[in-house]
Amino acid sequence: GLDIDKHISEIKRLRNEADKCPEDNPAGLMRKIDYLAKCLVYIGRVSSFLDGEYKRIYAQRKYEQALAHVNADKHREASAEIAVRELRLQEAQAYENMQRWRNAFASTNEEIHALKLKMRIDFAEHISS
Q1: Which member of 43, 44, 54, 71 has the greatest number of CB atoms within 10 A?
Q2: Quick one: CA dihedral 88, 91, 95, 97, positive or negative?
Q3: Using DSSP, how many helices (H) and how many strands (E) does the chain show?
Q4: Model's pTM, two decimal places?
Protein backbone atom coordinates (compact mmCIF):
# COMPACT_ATOMS: atom_id res chain seq x y z
CA GLY A 1 0.00 0.00 0.00
CA LEU A 2 0.82 3.66 0.28
CA ASP A 3 2.97 5.09 3.07
CA ILE A 4 0.47 7.74 4.14
CA ASP A 5 2.64 9.26 6.89
CA LYS A 6 5.57 9.70 4.51
CA HIS A 7 3.31 11.33 1.93
CA ILE A 8 1.76 13.67 4.50
CA SER A 9 5.14 14.79 5.82
CA GLU A 10 6.24 15.46 2.23
CA ILE A 11 3.05 17.48 1.65
CA LYS A 12 3.78 19.54 4.79
CA ARG A 13 7.40 20.07 3.74
CA LEU A 14 6.45 21.26 0.25
CA ARG A 15 3.67 23.44 1.68
CA ASN A 16 6.15 25.10 4.09
CA GLU A 17 8.58 25.75 1.24
CA ALA A 18 5.76 27.21 -0.84
CA ASP A 19 4.71 29.51 2.00
CA LYS A 20 8.25 30.91 2.24
CA CYS A 21 8.28 31.99 -1.41
CA PRO A 22 7.66 35.68 -2.08
CA GLU A 23 4.83 36.49 -4.49
CA ASP A 24 6.08 39.96 -5.38
CA ASN A 25 8.56 38.80 -8.03
CA PRO A 26 8.26 36.34 -10.93
CA ALA A 27 11.01 33.97 -9.69
CA GLY A 28 9.47 33.64 -6.21
CA LEU A 29 6.00 33.15 -7.64
CA MET A 30 7.24 30.50 -10.09
CA ARG A 31 8.97 28.65 -7.23
CA LYS A 32 5.78 28.80 -5.17
CA ILE A 33 3.73 27.40 -8.06
CA ASP A 34 6.31 24.66 -8.57
CA TYR A 35 6.25 23.60 -4.89
CA LEU A 36 2.44 23.56 -4.88
CA ALA A 37 2.34 21.53 -8.10
CA LYS A 38 4.62 18.92 -6.50
CA CYS A 39 2.47 19.06 -3.37
CA LEU A 40 -0.62 18.38 -5.50
CA VAL A 41 0.91 15.14 -6.81
CA TYR A 42 1.27 13.83 -3.24
CA ILE A 43 -2.17 15.09 -2.24
CA GLY A 44 -3.61 13.30 -5.27
CA ARG A 45 -1.98 10.02 -4.28
CA VAL A 46 -3.25 10.26 -0.69
CA SER A 47 -6.70 11.21 -1.96
CA SER A 48 -6.86 8.26 -4.38
CA PHE A 49 -5.62 5.85 -1.73
CA LEU A 50 -8.27 7.03 0.74
CA ASP A 51 -10.98 6.75 -1.94
CA GLY A 52 -9.96 3.10 -2.29
CA GLU A 53 -9.80 2.64 1.47
CA TYR A 54 -13.39 3.87 1.80
CA LYS A 55 -14.56 1.52 -0.97
CA ARG A 56 -12.75 -1.44 0.64
CA ILE A 57 -14.39 -0.85 4.03
CA TYR A 58 -17.77 -0.33 2.35
CA ALA A 59 -17.42 -3.64 0.47
CA GLN A 60 -16.35 -5.45 3.66
CA ARG A 61 -19.34 -4.03 5.55
CA LYS A 62 -21.79 -5.07 2.81
CA TYR A 63 -20.30 -8.58 2.78
CA GLU A 64 -20.43 -9.05 6.57
CA GLN A 65 -23.92 -7.58 6.67
CA ALA A 66 -25.12 -10.11 4.10
CA LEU A 67 -23.37 -12.91 5.99
CA ALA A 68 -24.98 -11.91 9.30
CA HIS A 69 -28.34 -11.63 7.54
CA VAL A 70 -28.07 -15.15 6.11
CA ASN A 71 -26.91 -16.66 9.43
CA ALA A 72 -29.46 -14.95 11.69
CA ASP A 73 -32.35 -17.08 12.98
CA LYS A 74 -34.68 -14.16 13.62
CA HIS A 75 -34.62 -10.35 13.52
CA ARG A 76 -32.37 -10.64 10.46
CA GLU A 77 -32.13 -6.91 9.73
CA ALA A 78 -31.37 -5.96 13.33
CA SER A 79 -28.87 -8.77 13.79
CA ALA A 80 -27.08 -7.80 10.58
CA GLU A 81 -26.92 -4.12 11.61
CA ILE A 82 -25.55 -5.00 15.06
CA ALA A 83 -22.95 -7.29 13.50
CA VAL A 84 -21.52 -4.51 11.32
CA ARG A 85 -21.69 -1.63 13.80
CA GLU A 86 -17.89 -1.34 14.08
CA LEU A 87 -17.45 -1.44 10.31
CA ARG A 88 -20.10 1.27 9.92
CA LEU A 89 -18.04 3.54 12.19
CA GLN A 90 -14.85 2.76 10.23
CA GLU A 91 -16.74 3.45 7.02
CA ALA A 92 -17.89 6.85 8.27
CA GLN A 93 -14.33 7.76 9.30
CA ALA A 94 -12.97 6.61 5.93
CA TYR A 95 -15.62 8.68 4.13
CA GLU A 96 -14.61 11.75 6.16
CA ASN A 97 -10.92 11.23 5.32
CA MET A 98 -11.74 10.74 1.65
CA GLN A 99 -13.73 13.98 1.51
CA ARG A 100 -11.07 15.96 3.42
CA TRP A 101 -8.34 14.95 0.93
CA ARG A 102 -10.59 15.51 -2.09
CA ASN A 103 -11.15 19.03 -0.76
CA ALA A 104 -7.42 19.53 -0.15
CA PHE A 105 -6.75 18.51 -3.75
CA ALA A 106 -9.40 20.87 -5.13
CA SER A 107 -8.33 23.86 -3.02
CA THR A 108 -4.61 23.40 -3.79
CA ASN A 109 -5.45 23.12 -7.48
CA GLU A 110 -7.49 26.36 -7.27
CA GLU A 111 -4.63 28.06 -5.45
CA ILE A 112 -2.20 27.10 -8.22
CA HIS A 113 -4.56 28.49 -10.87
CA ALA A 114 -4.98 31.72 -8.92
CA LEU A 115 -1.19 32.12 -8.64
CA LYS A 116 -0.75 31.48 -12.37
CA LEU A 117 -3.35 34.15 -13.06
CA LYS A 118 -1.57 36.55 -10.68
CA MET A 119 1.66 35.78 -12.53
CA ARG A 120 0.07 36.71 -15.86
CA ILE A 121 -1.51 39.88 -14.54
CA ASP A 122 1.27 41.18 -12.26
CA PHE A 123 4.22 40.38 -14.47
CA ALA A 124 2.85 40.54 -18.02
CA GLU A 125 4.24 44.05 -18.41
CA HIS A 126 7.73 42.89 -17.32
CA ILE A 127 7.72 40.08 -19.83
CA SER A 128 6.41 42.17 -22.73
CA SER A 129 8.79 45.09 -22.17
Answers
A1: 43
A2: positive
A3: 4, 0
A4: 0.86
